[in-house]
Design goal:
The complex is a heterodimer of chains A (256) and B (271). Chain A is an alpha/beta fold and 256 residues long. In chain A, 36% of the residues lie in helices and 25% in strands. Chain A contains eight helices and ten strands. A ten-stranded mixed beta sheet of chain A has the order 5-4-1-2-10-9-3-8-7-6, sandwiched between helices. In chain A, helix 6 links the parallel strand 7 and strand 8. The longest helix of chain A has 20 residues. Chain A starts with a strand and ends with a helix. With 271 residues, chain B is an all-alpha fold. The radius of gyration of chain B is 23 Å and the shape is globular. The chains are: A alpha/beta (256), B mainly alpha (271). The interface between A and B is medium-sized, with 27 and 21 residues.
Chain lengths: 256, 271
């Protein structure tokens, strides 16, 4: 369970103090998939960084499982960056096992776990490849598996599929959806892709431009499992998209 | 791959042919023109000044044979000093670069000193180093270290700083301790940058050692060259230069082979 109350974050810009995150409050239930959308500069990624404990909030409190997060990393948390975070000098297998090595998991146990993960990510046969030999979509999957290896209960995704083409992205949507249903993590995903948000999440939270606050929380009641290829054509999908766009588009127009 | 390979082989053969042709033309002109009396009298093509490829080859052959004129003891001492200078210079440059690259505070404190030291003309220190450390091996090693250190330091420093914050945060979420992250992220990243400085470091170390031998030494290739200068013997000088550049080429190609093995994961060496 993640809980934000009155969270804000300022930083010193060229023209004085900038209130990037104004006053944000929301809860995420265990096992829930929440998507954060908003105009650029509204501090979506900053919020994610604060939940992870990379940055302390200027105002308000963030709690993960009841424990306040104040610039310290909560346990059992996975974070996927938009940037590539594979170690290029290790094979796929060693990359996926990195967290297990860090945590001192015995070798044979780690090996078995990495084998499972490779199968789960449809990467069997690529275990001995180096990152530069993989496609962009494969590298994203490896980054996800690196996180999943240490069995996080919470996954924070920062525009995880932003740099991919539409085809690769659709496939990764399906895989993430399947993995999430199988493993049941709590997920908070920042995205600029409204379709992606509606497609995958249980709830879409729309933030305003800076200083940001929550404008809308749209419950997506399309039942799981969703077929990521056909759900886009349904009337519910269109209705949710239209409803969110109504609020979000207004913000896009206001924030030049 | 198999479709591309013959083209690549053909290109390589053609490159080699051109290289051979350039050498033949330059060496041929050198040998030929120094034998034409008019050129000897009116131009720089005078064997007294620039010797002659055939004379240099004969001198090299004499040097290679055992006896009091043998070049091996000198070459060996120069090489030894170069290797020690490289080991100490690369080692210390890497450690200091890594430490300062990881700590912005240390970097801020030491920055003015490093800039000051780096802008000093290093050659001016060679006599001083010779005064401090005497006419033996130690002066040569210290001189080589002095030039190699900064080269390696700056590259390693940049490398350590190039580690992205996202990478470090990601590793922290995977449970990496600062020490584990140092060994698995900082050291390999910095090492790749250090490697990029090594071909220059090798040449600089060699130059540093020969320079130290010029200033004060009774052994080594640099000593052979100052002796040749004292007797106005251009053939000896060119023979020494040829030998030194061959040593440089050998060291750099050994390094390239090592780099291909160690940095095989880098897209630079992609097949």
């Amino acid at each position: 369970m993640i809980s934000l109350s009155g969270v804000g974050r300022d930083y010193i810009g060229r023209n004085g103090v900038v209130h990037a995150v104004g006053d944000v409050s929301f809860d995420v239930a265990p096992g829930e998939f929440v998507a954060l959308v908003g105009p650029s500069g509204c501090g979506k990624s900053t919020l994610l960084n604060m939940i992870a404990g990379f940055l302390p909030p200027t105002r308000g409190t963030i709690r993960v499982d009841g424990e306040p997060v104040n610039g310290k990393l909560p346990d059992a948390l996975g974070y996927i960056f938009q940037k590539d975070t594979l170690l290029p000098w290790y094979t796929v297998r060693k990359n996926i096992g990195l967290g297990l090595t860090f945590r001192g998991v015995p070798r044979h146990e780690a090996q078995a776990r990495v084998d499972d993960l490779l199968k789960m990510g449809n990467l069997t046969g690529f275990g001995d490849a180096y990152p530069h030999q993989l496609s962009g979509g494969m590298r994203r999957r490896v980054a996800l598996l690196m996180s999943l290896a240490v069995q996080p209960r919470i996954l924070l995704l920062d525009e995880p599929f932003g740099a991919l083409d539409m085809h690769t992205r659709a496939h990764l949507h399906r895989e993430l959806s399947v993995l999430w249903r199988a493993l049941g993590q709590t997920i908070v995903m920042v995205t600029h892709d409204l379709d992606e948000a509606v497609l995958l999440s249980d709830r879409v939270i729309v933030l305003s431009g800076p200083p940001s606050r929550v404008l809308l929380q749209e419950q997506i009641d399309i039942p799981h499992p969703r077929d990521v290829f056909t759900v886009r054509e349904t009337a519910e999908f269109a209705a949710h998209s239209r409803c969110i766009w109504h609020v979000l588009g207004e913000q896009f127009r206001a924030v030049a | 791959m198999s479709v591309v390979a013959p083209d690549r082989d053909a290109a390589r053969v053609s490159d080699r042919a051109w290289q051979a042709l350039i050498i033949i033309v330059v060496v041929g002109a050198w040998e030929g023109l120094t034998r034409v009396p008019w050129f000897v009298a009116n131009t720089v093509f005078d064997p007294f000044f620039i010797s002659q490829p055939s004379r240099i080859a004969v001198r090299l052959y004499e040097w290679m044979r055992p006896g009091p004129q043998s070049v091996w003891p000198h070459l060996w001492l120069t090489l030894q000093a170069t290797m020690w200078g490289l080991i100490v210079g690369v080692g210390s440059g890497f450690l200091v670069g890594l430490a300062l690259g990881r700590s912005p505070r240390l970097a801020r404190i030491f920055n003015p000193f490093i800039v000051a030291f780096n802008s000093m003309p290093r050659i001016a220190f060679v006599p001083l180093i010779t005064m401090f450390f005497g006419l033996g091996m130690l002066s040569k090693v210290v001189t080589a270290w002095f030039v190699v250190f900064f080269l390696v330091f700056f590259n390693t420093y940049k490398g350590a700083r190039s580690v992205e914050r996202e990478m470090l945060d990601f590793c922290r979420t995977l449970g990496g301790s600062p020490r584990q992250i140092l060994w698995r992220v900082h050291v390999p990243t910095a090492a790749a940058w250090t490697f990029a400085a090594l071909p220059n470091a090798i040449s600089f170390a060699l130059i540093g050692v020969v320079l130290a031998e010029f200033v004060g030494s009774t052994t080594g290739m640099g000593y052979l060259m100052t002796t040749a200068l004292a007797t106005l013997n251009a053939t000896d000088m060119f023979a020494a230069v040829t030998l030194l550049s061959m040593v440089g080429i050998l060291l750099v190609s050994a390094l390239t082979a090592l780099e291909k093995r160690l940095l095989h994961w880098s897209p630079e060496f992609r097949q």
